[in-house]
């Protein structure tokens, strides 16, 4: 069953964040923490179409880093703590934030790829047009005015 027709009423955001199959909304999308399952155990959808690459990591780092850097800056300006205080407060916030968002965001991107039928770009060979010989103008007369 590799039918690309999604079940009506399933949003890619909802099914992705819940880490469920984009077609049926029931089967698990992942096998492990971030490893995609080979196929949905409920509807049989083959997940080989999915290639989120580094997209989830980029978005997670962008989302998490702004509040954590703002917090670290506020902490430094307000209290001027020792460096170890930053390691004890900011580093765990950064790690927990990234790990908490990475899986749902990857699921969302995979579901969006399915819904929008995203695929790898392919080059199409275009017909080659003849290039006029040197000295020929666009009118084809060959005379230069």
UniProtKB/TrEMBL annotation:
- Give the keywords, sorted: Membrane, Transmembrane, Transmembrane helix
- Report which superkingdom the organism of origin falls in: Bacteria
Q: What residues form the membrane-spanning segments?
A: 57-75, 81-102
A Pfam family of this chain: DUF983
Specify the protein name: DUF983 domain-containing protein
Instruction: Please give the organism.
Output: Azospirillum doebereinerae
């Amino acid at each position: 069953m590799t039918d690309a027709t999604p079940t009506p009423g399933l949003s890619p955001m909802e099914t992705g964040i819940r880490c469920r199959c984009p077609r049926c909304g029931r089967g698990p999308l992942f096998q492990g923490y971030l490893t995609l399952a080979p196929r949905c155990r409920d509807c049989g959808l083959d997940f080989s179409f999915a290639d989120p690459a580094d997209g989830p990591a980029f978005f997670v780092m962008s989302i998490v880093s702004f509040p954590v850097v703002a917090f670290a800056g506020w902490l430094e300006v307000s209290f001027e703590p020792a460096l170890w205080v930053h390691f004890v407060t900011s580093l765990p916030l950064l790690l927990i934030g990234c790990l908490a968002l990475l899986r749902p965001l990857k699921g969302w991107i995979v579901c969006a790829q399915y819904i929008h039928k995203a695929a790898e770009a392919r080059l199409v060979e275009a017909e080659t047009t003849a290039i006029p010989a040197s000295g020929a103008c666009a009118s084809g007369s060959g005379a230069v005015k």
